[in-house]
What we know:
It is built from 14 helices and 22 strands. It has two domains: 3-55 and 308-438, Beta Barrel (Lyase, Ornithine Decarboxylase, Chain A, domain 1), CATH 2.40.37.10; 56-305, TIM Barrel, CATH 3.20.20.10. Helix 4 packs across helix 5 (105-114), helix 6 (131-140) packs across helix 7 (150-162) and helix 8 packs across helix 9 (230-249). The protein is an alpha/beta fold. Strands 4, 14, 15, 16, 18, 19, 20, 21 and 22 form a nine-stranded mixed beta sheet that branches. It has an eight-stranded parallel barrel with strand order 5-6-7-8-9-11-12-13, surrounded by five helices. Ligand LLP is lined by residues 80, 83, 101, 125, 185, 222, 225-226, 260-263, 300-304, 339, 343, 400-401.
Amino acid sequence: MTSRYQSLPGRAPGFTYQHSRRGLLRTKGPLVLHCEDLSMTTLAEKFGTPLYVYSGETITAHHLAFDRAFRDIHHTICYSVKANSNLSILRLLARKGCGFDVVSGGELERVMTADRRAAKRVVFSGVGKTREEITAALKAGILLFNIESESELWALAECAGRLRTKAPVAFRVNPDVAAETHPYISTGLHKHKFGVPVSEARALYAEASGVRYLRVRGVSVHIGSQITDAGPFGEAMSRVADLVRELRRDGHEIDYVDAGGGLGISYDQPPAGTFPQQVAAYAAALVKPLRDLKIHLLLEPGRSIVGPAGALLTSIVYKKSNNGKKFLIVDAAMNDLIRPALYGAFHEIIPVTLHTDQIAKSETTDIVGPVCETGDFFARDRTLPVLEEGDLLAILDAGAYGMALASNYNTRPRPAEVLVSGKSAKLIRRREKISDLLRQEL
Ligand code: LLP
């Protein structure tokens, strides 16, 4: 079992096991999980658990991998804020010139708070933008509105008219492409609520181009999330490329194609190849159909940038066994990371400290939280070294849709978040207190 843990094969290099050094002679101690150069035990002591720990190096490396993979085409990476919206993470990406994909007035406000100048690199997606949200985005001067229905188009025209400005418009088309992923996060089929059918797109573009306060700029698409096969991305992009040609023939100015997000990560097994290789395969599939179109490509990755960069650090509160069925009850719960409960998602869970004698013995156990629901689990029948109460566990690949989906269910304060850079760790969100939760109530 040592080798499985020692090298964390295929994992983002942000999290590695390193031997701790002890005493004056600095003798070799047990293997301890580190985030960059900091041991997770130190982080737990300093900030408490449950704790979200992010590797800044991984986030910037993944952003750079995208930038490099698309270097042959004009492009802007618009990080999907919904995956992890912490201001420090947005600031880190904004400093690299990254743009943002937002889906609410709240997310727009976050981007503006992180870096006001990033507004011109913001795309606004979502099926239910309100007039207030649209107006805020128009005032901010965003790059593009991805419009998902005729009604929304008229709402945008009305808001733009009131401000005497021209709103930049793309329609999000639904390419009717099936992608293999969880049904809750697949979006590219006609039965889903997203986008407008490709067959109706030309009529809508014609309508939009006749409105004084709208400026047609592009076409957008997003087929779903956690898609690990490049095939469906290429297929959707071919349909978009055909549509761009038709729209141009109809006389529309189509400068942008927004390819959405969706590139998946390997939660349960070592990925095929390094991250730059995975992005390169994705880029090849997207770029091929667009090659002769001279468009500016927008990308909205979320999970693939921040997912592998984060771990949820939790400590074992109790061990128990019901008629031989074993449980590790930890201090994190479904309210902190809902992906296993909501999607049956797999997350690799590893011990923070590995003593040589522990590695030899293993047991099969469920890892569960304290919330009063059977759905409150992180793993079922997982084989781990024999661990004790008080030991720490790291739930990997939790940087995306972890904290972003956290709630206060069971009146549990949400965890703190820290961003690690080399040997330094910055608290980027304070741990909530119960008093914070009660404050809003009258
Ligand atoms: N663009 C649009 C229009 C989206 O709807 C999404 C994700 C993204 C970009 C970013 O996709 P990504 O690159 O992160 O796959 N909570 C779920 C995922 C929901 C995804 C929603 N839309 C989960 O934990 O798996």
